[in-house]
Design brief:
Structural class of chain A: alpha/beta
Order of helices and strands of chain B: EEEEHHEHE
Largest interface: A-B, 16 and 27 residues
Number of helices of chain A: 13
Distance between the termini of chain A: 70 Å
Helix content of chain A: 25-40%
Structural class of chain B: alpha+beta
Oligomer: heterodimer
Number of helices of chain B: 3
Distance between the termini of chain B: 4 Å
CATH superfamily of the largest domain in chain A: Alanine racemase
Bound molecules: pyridoxal-5'-phosphate
CATH class of the largest domain in chain A: Alpha Beta
Shape of chain A: globular
Largest sheet of chain A: 9 strands, mixed
Shape of chain B: globular
Chain lengths: 452, 80
């Protein structure tokens, strides 16, 4: 029998300068996702291909819900639509009991379309049109006011329609994590937040339902949430005692990190980030210290996004070519690039071959298919040699990619979901040229190829 | 083109170039090729032998061969 071929390579050994953390092994082959073979997925749905695991989505939700509900009597999650608003994904979370958290008119419409009752939709964000606000007021949704202009916009709406808006304000604050996200909401330290609350209550035209903050994303400090709880609780206390308005909820927003590895980080994300349990402990312990958690306690709302969906998403891709760069490094070109994987600007995504390989590994750059310099998935990753036609699995791609993907140079590919029984469902069809050009119009004088 | 005379190679793929002080590691196929280059075999004889003993189609071999020779040249291991 003939021996297995592997491309011959030599690699320069640099005198003793070994990575002090040891060579990371990212090269276990990953041939199956939830029991379905990667090869068969690509054969049936093409490459590249996004794959979502319904089992992981539900498990993540239940784990997070349990982490909070075992520590605090009244907990509600609201699915952050912008993290992944494919309807199938949203519906999994709604079936699990999640409300919807939206930041635009079209996300609001999507939530309604997914069957979420108006009062269970949280409407965040700095830009809401009159039509959008009126609809939200009529539906009894929770409107989180971002700035004074919006507050006055809403007051004007109350003159036109009979329903009383149910509102909260978004509060920004110093939690010891910098930079402070002070562009959204009303500032706590300078008294703006309190001014807004007074104005809402004294207007008599709106129902103040709660307080909201979202202190950042991919937060690595549990203590920051303790600070946020203290400051929101202080405002809530003053609403109750000075404005005679007890609040129904405190909304702590999202921000818990997924286990992805931040770019340039020495430690893999799995070792570096606090778990949901640790965040739940910090938040609920602080609430309990302040006397919350008994009867008539305000509801604790969480708008977690990435931590619930990131590791449920995979991007499958195929090797287009390999080449040597002028400095001798190997480059591997994949058919999926930053057009699909926006998060490769933040993360060193783990990439695994999807088939057996020979044991020689090499540091290589991984590029996407775009004819653009920015299209880098990994500057350097230690992987076995890959050949044209080989398949790879890119891990933890469920958050923000299926919303921030660009229709740039290439069209968006199929997205499938593997259900809990291992059946595969197409949940978004690959785009076509027809779909892409459907909204375009060609002026009459350009209908003919020749200039008149 | 041939492998520089003073290059030291070992069976397990260690390569040392005494004139530059550089050392390299070779994967098994590369080590086998280097061994044959050292013995002074011609490129075409080595390639024919590889086709006989490995599961590889001729086009793929050509492509990999060219890239490998380039690597050797860049590493200063070849002489004309
Ligand atoms: C208001 C609000 N809530 C929730 C989220 C979800 O955040 P994450 O994915 O960090 O949990 C975001 C995202 O930035 C947000 O802006």
């Amino acid at each position: 029998m003939k021996k297995t071929w592997q491309s011959p390579v030599i690699q320069k050994m640099n005198g003793g300068l070994m990575n002090k953390f040891g060579t990371r092994t990212e090269y276990e082959p990953v041939k199956h996702i939830d029991g379905v073979s990667v090869q068969s997925l690509i054969k049936e749905y093409g490459s590249p291909l996004f794959v979502l695991s319904e089992r992981t989505l539900r498990r993540n939700y239940r784990d997070a819900y349990r982490a909070f509900s075992t520590r605090y009597p009244s907990v509600q999650f609201a699915w952050s639509y912008k993290t992944n608003y494919l309807n199938a994904v949203c519906r999994v979370f709604h079936q699990e009991g999640s409300w919807a958290e939206v930041v635009s008119g079209f996300e609001y419409q999507k939530a309604l379309g997914n069957g979420v009752p108006g009062p269970q939709i949280i409407f965040n964000g700095p830009e809401k049109t009159n039509e959008e606000l009126e609809l939200a007021v009529r539906n009894g949704s929770l409107i989180h006011i971002d700035h004074f202009d919006e507050l006055f916009q809403l007051l004007a709406i109350t003159d036109r329609i009979p329903e009383k808006p149910r509102v909260a304000i978004r509060v920004n604050m110093d939690t010891g994590v910098y930079p402070v996200w002070d562009r959204f909401g009303f500032n706590y330290e300078n008294g703006q937040a309190w001014d807004a609350l007074k104005r809402i209550v004294t207007s008599g035209k709106m129902t103040l339902t709660g307080l909201h903050c979202h202190i950042g994303t991919f937060m690595l400090s549990t203590n920051a949430y303790r600070q946020a709880v203290k400051k929101l609780a202080d405002l809530a206390w003053r609403c109750k005692t000075e404005l005679n308005t007890p609040l129904q909820y405190l909304d702590l927003g999202g921000g818990f990190p997924s286990t992805n590895t931040l770019r340039g980080s020495f430690l893999p994300g799995t070792d570096a980030v606090p778990s949901v349990d640790e965040f739940a402990e910090a938040i609920t312990a602080q609430l309990t210290e302040l006397g919350y958690g008994t009867q008539d306690t305000p509801k604790l709302i969480l708008e977690s996004g990435r931590v619930l969906v990131d590791d449920a998403g995979y991007l499958l891709s195929t090797v287009v070519a390999t080449k040597r760069l002028s400095d001798g490094r190997r480059a591997t070109i994949l058919d999926a690039g930053v057009n699909l994987l926006f998060t490769s600007f933040w993360y060193d995504h783990t990439i695994s071959p999807a088939q057996d390989f020979t044991h020689h590994t090499e540091d290589m750059a991984l590029f996407g298919p775009l004819c653009m310099n920015i299209d880098v998935l990994r500057q350097s990753s230690n992987l076995p040699l890959l050949n044209r036609g080989d398949q790879v699995v890119i891990h933890k791609t469920g958050a923000y990619n299926m919303t921030q993907w660009m229709q740039f140079i290439h069209m968006r590919p199929n997205v499938v979901m593997i259900d809990e029984e291992g059946n595969t469902h197409l949940i978004r069809e690959a785009e076509t040229l027809e779909y892409l050009q459907q909204p375009e119009k060609i002026p009459a004088h350009l209908q003919q190829p020749e200039k008149k | 083109m041939y492998l520089r005379k003073n290059i030291a190679t070992s069976e397990n793929g260690f390569i040392f170039n005494p004139s530059t002080g550089d050392s390299f590691s070779a994967n098994p196929v590369a080590a086998a090729i280097l061994e044959q280059l050292k013995q002074g075999m011609t490129f075409s004889d080595i390639k024919a032998g590889l086709l006989d003993s490995y599961e590889v189609d001729p086009l793929r071999l050509e492509r990999d061969w060219d890239e490998f020779i380039n690597q050797l040249r860049e590493a200063n291991l070849l002489a004309d």
